[in-house]
Amino acid sequence: MKKGVVLLQQSWIIIRTFIIAAAAGFIFDRIGIFLPWLLGPMVSLLLLRQYTKLQFEWPRIYRQIGLIFLGIQIGSSFTKTSIELMWFDFPLMVLMTMSVSGVALLLSLLFMKMSGETIATSVLGSLPGGLSQMVLLSEEVESANSTIVTLMQTFRIFVVVTVVPFLTAWIPKGSHFNEVTLTELPTFNVTHFVIAVLLGTSFFIAMKKIHFPLPEMMAPILSMAIVQFVTDHPVVEVPSIVLILSQIFVGAHLGLQLEKVRNQLSIRLFAAIVLTNLALIAFCGFIAYTLTNIHPVNTFLDFFISAAPGGIAEMSITALETGADLSTVTSFHLFRIFFILLIAGPVMTYALKKWLKADV
To answer: Does pTM surpass 0.85?
Structure first.
């Protein structure tokens, strides 16, 4: 009997969380705030969690479902032509990734001076390589504070997700759009869809084993891209209502992820995080402007969202809403993830360990 009551209470808390998140998204949409279905749930649940006694709960499975459908929609933007054109963007990916990562490292020194944290904490908290991966790397370095690294990475995403969409609202939208028109959409092919599902499942299992970031999102992106490249045939398009629900699911997770931020975030630490991230966003605008002049095929909006130091899920949603080229934004962020996880992160961890041993 008690288990049944507890289950009903938990179910009501989850339902209430969804109702508030969806209502906030609707209100943000009605009053014209950009990215309403992501920012509405995020901001409302963050504030209510911090300043009321209401209980909220958002099972991880809902975030995973949201990421899966976002991954499918993003994967559908990878046509055979766009994948072939990625080769020509490769030098730009290297230039942008090296530039943004280099400036992030320089800003980590500013963060260290402002906050008083160790160099290891500052570096691993400043690199835009994914929350879970940077936290895992911080656990390998003795002088790194994993709690502060978690806070820095989480709050950086929060700053980027609130600032970048606001800025993109003032940037002229590109002439290309991500939607597939009805004339481009051939008859649904069951075989292609089944192959994409099987491939996606295989990728997901492999990514979970190696702890790759966002496997729920990355697996459908890769499987959809591969099937569409080989067949030159769109697999499936996600209905707009499903995309809205996916954004609500992800936004609710982001809002509740900052549950203990008020207890851990001092004014000094807050100022250091905000200042360094705003400086990094400003540099992203500069590098986007530079690349637009070098490669005018893409718009400033494409490059700005591609450079922004936010998570791939949040920046892909921003690209969807602004009409930026989704395949370009996703491919640039994918390259940065691979670069930081496979090269920059391990190298910096090794260097920090060696440096700390030399000081002992």
So the answer is: no
